Amino acid sequence: MTTAAMALADAAPKPPPLQEPTPLSSLVFSKESRNLSCLVVTSLVSILFALSFSFSSLSLSSSVAFTKNNINTRLASLLSLHNSLPPPPSLAYLVTGSTGDHNRILRLLSAVYHPKNIYLLHLDLEANQSEREALAYAVQKINVYMEIGNVHVVGHAGNGDTKGSSSLAVVLHGAAALLKLSKHWNWFLNLDVSDYPLVTQDDLLHILAFLPREINFIQHTDHFDPREFRRLKRVMIDPGLYLSTQPDQVFYGTQQRELPDAFRIFTGSGSVILTRNFIEYCILGTDNLPRSILMYYTNTLSSHTKYFHTVVCNSLEFKNTVFNSNLHFASSADLFKNMSRSGAAFRSGFVENDPILDRIDLVLLGKLPSKIIPGGWCLEKKTKMSSSSSSISNECSVLGDANILRPGPGAKRLENFILKFISDSGGSLRARQCISDRK
Ligand SMILES: *[C@@H]1O[C@H](CO)[C@@H](O)[C@H](O)[C@H]1NC(C)=O
Ligand SMILES: *[C@@H]1O[C@H](CO)[C@@H](O)[C@H](O)[C@H]1NC(C)=O
Hints:
By secondary structure, the chain is of the alpha/beta class. 41% of the residues lie in helices and 13% in strands. Helix 6 links the parallel strand 1 (91-97) and strand 2. One 2-acetamido-2-deoxy-beta-D-glucopyranose binds next to helix 7.
């Protein structure tokens, strides 16, 4: 293990970013007002006023974008308007895995890589520290990752039991770290090693560039089948939150609890695409709703599939910003044809070395399994093939401008996916926002 690789592993946020004074909290507790409680109150009120002002302007702009009757044609014409391209957004990816997932994480990273984005890789506590070091070392060996400097590895991992609430803690920790690592990203995405993209990053960035920057892509519903309903009422304890050694499985309290009536519960896919604004609201915000809901979900099974869904739909500021799809392929069909025709940006549920991944690489992403996904950012590819074909290698010898996208057929597929979704939900992005699906 080189010290450099160790340093990379340690480059992960050691003091949790939440403990750092944020601009907001330093404002509230500024030196001048600390001694005078009335000043604290006035500054708090003015902050709340400023917040409500900025939120109302946000919801105003989003409602302008969302309530157009002809959103369909508007989006279509926007998306095919190629001569005045808006600048591409930047995405922040949290990629999570467990013990033995080293190669799957590297493969997924090579398929979603783009220099405009930022990446945080997390191997949970089931993996040992040498696995995390090996991952950091493998990232270091790939020139383009090091040259751009946008791939980070979490050195101090958390437990990631997807049955419990510790995996939600991992997502929130990752999002907080990404807020601190870069000020420039627009959307946060969380993927685990069973996810894989079905379009290139140039395709995805190209399409997202045309969409309002305040959309949160969260697949959600408030319909729970009777079994899920009973599960919701159980009080679950996740030892992964407080035992630092490899903990036991989650366990349950003997009593049941009523469902909350202060907020409505929503559930959906644990994979979400969230705006920076919404992440800041959940992690740094002065509104207490995200924290109350977080505390409620500490004792709920698989809370990472419910937390953001419930917060967004119960927040006046954000409920108009949600799009009821996470751009993932929703059907369980694992036929390659169905996947590619769907136009979705991602699909979940792949097993390790699934042969269909090779096909996705070749046909949909235009890359060899061992190569980094191509894009407009690479001006010149290496012609000499690397000797070892099993590990990811660097194909780009001359880096270009990361803002130059070369979208391919995947952009058209994704555009159709979004348009079809809008037309299926009544021609409006708003139609399926936080509505009750309870039967
Ligand atoms: C860490 O885990 C890997 C994979 O399970 C194993 O091969 C290795 O021996 C472990 N190393 C230590 C130091 O426990
Ligand atoms: C796959 O797509 C075809 C249409 O292209 C459809 O008829 C078929 O039912 C789909 N298969 C599954 C399993 O969804």
